[in-house]
Amino acid sequence: MLALVLAGSLPLDTYCRLGVLRQPVRLLLAIVPAAVLFIAWDVAAAAAGQWHLDPAQTFAGRLWGLPLEEYAFFLVIPLAGILTFEAVTVLSTRRRGP
Amino acid sequence: MTSYTAAAAVAVLVALLADVFILRTALVRTRTWWTAYGIVLAFQLVTNGWLTGRGIVRYSGDAILGSGRIVFLGDGRIAFAPVEDLGFGFALVLISCATWVWAGAMIRSAHGRKE
Lengths: 98, 115
Hints:
Chain A is mainly α. Chain A contains three helices and three strands.
């Protein structure tokens, strides 16, 4: 699922010439703080039994009781969101002209 | 009111406060944000529907608005996923985009000062 999200959103960077991936520092600043907050809540909610992942449908590697895919989720989804946001910004600016 | 529900409401509130008052990016006042969010939302319904419909992610009936039964629509669920997930998705993407815009402005002004 995460691979599909990347497959759908990463080409935006090339096709729309967003240059998002050429700004690693800005990406880290944008993604890490939210990811840390959401992961902390996510781990706590899983520990409290509010939700769980099916062990049969996830990889075996675990960190704080959750599979590694869960942590990748909080990097991939914001990245896809930012790419979408930038693509909309760039496309709407181009349509209106410089 | 249930725990997962309360957390989703807090997440939306924190995201809005961050966007409007802390980072002062006010993306929620722009058409660009809502267009982008509409696209993200459509894909969230598909991908989250996959994760929840196949039972990859499961929720305790005590923590969500619905009973914990996996249904396509109704019993507190939209496209198999608890409605609370819409709140979390909105908050995660809004905070990320707002921080992205804020970081861009910070980096630009830092470069401007050097020149």
